[in-house]
Amino acid sequence: LRQLLVGFIAMGIILLGLFSFKSWEEENQDMRRNLAIQAGFAEKNSQAVFDNIGTRMEMLGMLLAKMDLADHSELVQSTLKEFQSSHPGIVAVTLVSPNGVTLLSANTVPGDALPDFRRDTAYLRAFLFDLNNTYSYNIGRNQFGMGLNQWHFPFRHTVQDSRGNPLFVIQAAISVESAGFLWSDLPLYPGSHVGLIRNDGYIQLLWPSPESEQVLNKPQTGALMQTLISYPGMISGAYEGKSSIDN
Q1: Has this prediction a pTM greater than 0.90?
Q2: Residues in Cβ contact with 172 at an 8 Å cutoff, skipping those fewer than 6 apart
Q3: What number of other Cβ atoms are within 10 A of residue 206's Cβ?
């Protein structure tokens, strides 16, 4: 009888263990499905917002190409301000010549000295790369300063003439706080973040926003980047490991 009782107890422990493991596995799968839904929403929403800005910027470029920028600077500046006000995440809009000279800014008063960033080699290198890129718009890495006392990233569209030569570049500065406009309504899984990370490891946007200097000023090296580097063709999936954002 004692042996039979011990057998029942052992069987009960095994069944309880199997049940606990099954419950844990189902909870883990539910969490991954929830995270996948959130990531998919973030991807589609941000792509739609960026595409909308790019399309509007392309239309703005066609309009400005018909104007004489020098003789109608006040009208051009008014047009830039209107474009900026229609996109809450944009904190500055400028027109830049193909050699990197700032031609006009929506945030300055006519007659004020315009900023010249050509001495910043990293800025000029990125600008010239975007100038010769064939995409309809290009998104640069986050930066602090460059005329703005906040973290932001450049969003550029090159306006070309009929022969395909660049006339000027429309450059918008998008605040990293725009992540709040994109994803503040997203019901995040407790303790999770949602964001965009570049192929070079730098974070583009992150929500909820932590201290910007801790995550925007250096490339990430944690489990996510290690997974992306190890599986460059993977477009969806899960990873596990230590985060370089918050350890």
Answers
A1: no
A2: 53, 57, 84, 87, 90, 92, 93, 154, 155, 156
A3: 19
